Amino acid sequence: MLRVSRDARLGALARGVDVLVIGGGITGAGVALDAASRGYRVGLIERADFAGGTSSRSTKLIHGGIRYLPQGHIGLVREALRERGLLLKLAAHIVRPLPFIVPLYAETRRPLGITLPALLRPAAPLGVRAGLLAYDLFARSPELRHQVLTRDRLVRAAPDLRTNGLRRAFVYYDARTDDVRLTHSVLGTARAHGATTLNYASVVELRHNGDRVDGAIVEDRLSGRTFEVPARFVVNATGIWAEQVAAMDGEPPFHIRHSKGVHLVLRPGAVRASMAIVIPETDDGRLAFIVPWADRFVLGTTDDAYRGDLERPTTTAADITYLLQHANRYLVRPLGPDDVTATYAGIRPLIAAAAGSTAALLRDHHLTHSRGGLMTITGGKLTTYRRMAEDTVDAIVARDGGGRPCRTASIPLVGSTGLDQTTATLRAAPLPEAQRRHLLASYGSAALTVLDLIREEPAFLEPLAEELPILAAEAIYACRAEEAVSLADVLYLRTRLAALDVAAADRAVDRVDGLMARELGWDTAERHRQRAAYDALRAQERLALAV
Questions:
Q1: Rounded to an integer, what distance in angstroms lies between the CA atom of residue 502 and that of residue 391?
Q2: CA pseudo-torsion sign 35, 36, 42, 46
Q3: What angle is formed at CA 36 by the lines to CA 139 and CA 84, rounded to 5 degrees?
Q4: What pLDDT is stored for residue 537 in this prediction?
Q5: Is residue 213 within a helix (H) or strand (E), and if so which, with residue range?
Q6: pTM over 0.70
């Protein structure tokens, strides 16, 4: 495995690019891939780590947004379902179909978040089924049609879901993913098309040639050095930071309102279910889910206006109480705090007109142009990242004279090809079955590169934690193939260990520190600095939970 040095990537950026993408989440990764696949020289910079913000803190779903149907957002749902269908093909290793149970109870007043007058509540099952029929129609996936669940089938599929007061139950389909692994698959595909990517690089200032933006002045946050990146086009794909970045090119033509969404990761066995579960009603009209992820379940989400620290949004005790109480209304075995192995909080960037109110907030994506030509793409969803990127690069092509059509609807992502051969090779390898499944689900055909590392050094076969099938080799892979440079990069974002079970991650941190120190050449001072940074992050999380 050939690692491109950081100095080489810095040099490539300093020589200039056609398209400079600011932001290394799923949206920026998608723009980088789209532009590079059309033949542009592309550079992408990220102020922290790739997928370190909202792109790592989703509900792990690729979905059409069924709750938007009754709100009248037909175009948004249709577009998202089209993108879902594409990702099921182009990212088959990391995006897979997922059935959802929708239970409706006698006391339900807001099915799927829609308030019904008392007169219409008896007809709620008919209304929900009509919505599911429309969802199927827009999805155009005959194999993923909704069904009515009998009580017996419901009990077999979700033994922990209560049946007392149940009026009707349905199952419909969407898809699940690992948001971080998906982002890295997109980034890897962008690099394969020639894009240069760099994390821990922050824009200090936009370059201007007269009134026109023609690049950026960037600080390498690891060395402290500042350098210039000349660029013909600059794209702001920084999500929750988009307004601040756009302000470098004058008054932003949009305004962002931030919303916090919290998720709880539940221990194995905390919920018995073979499908995802829709929590059909919450006190404040939200929609929540219990979704399988990595042999566990994720419970979420909340949706609260947020004005706090964008750098480190945290979960509070009140957030945990809210989610557990609402889930327990529909479960026969109540969940408690001891069932929670990890939590995460993410911030959504919701778009309003610059002078608008919160009532104008939108969930679809918007492309805006600032005074000097800076292009900002924001809003949207994990599911629609590819379409967001297509719209953005279409605008670049239009400025550039045309003639470069989008290709990403037919480009398989890194890891998605050769899955049958990869499965056969993993079966022949000296790996426990749980580790085979984990490697295939996390890396697809790139799991063979991880397997090569194990052959190179058999000690890399050891798991980082007894509770999870995550291998030492994955920490090495993260450094060599995915530009990981810190303990948090590996524990939270590359392996997902701390995102799944923080206690297990705390027990694994010494091992990961040793692996990374050897791989990246850390001296004693750097190892102390890395450990202090990880410990400070964990202390901040513990403090927030005590609030």
A1: 39
A2: positive
A3: 10
A4: 92
A5: strand 212-220
A6: yes
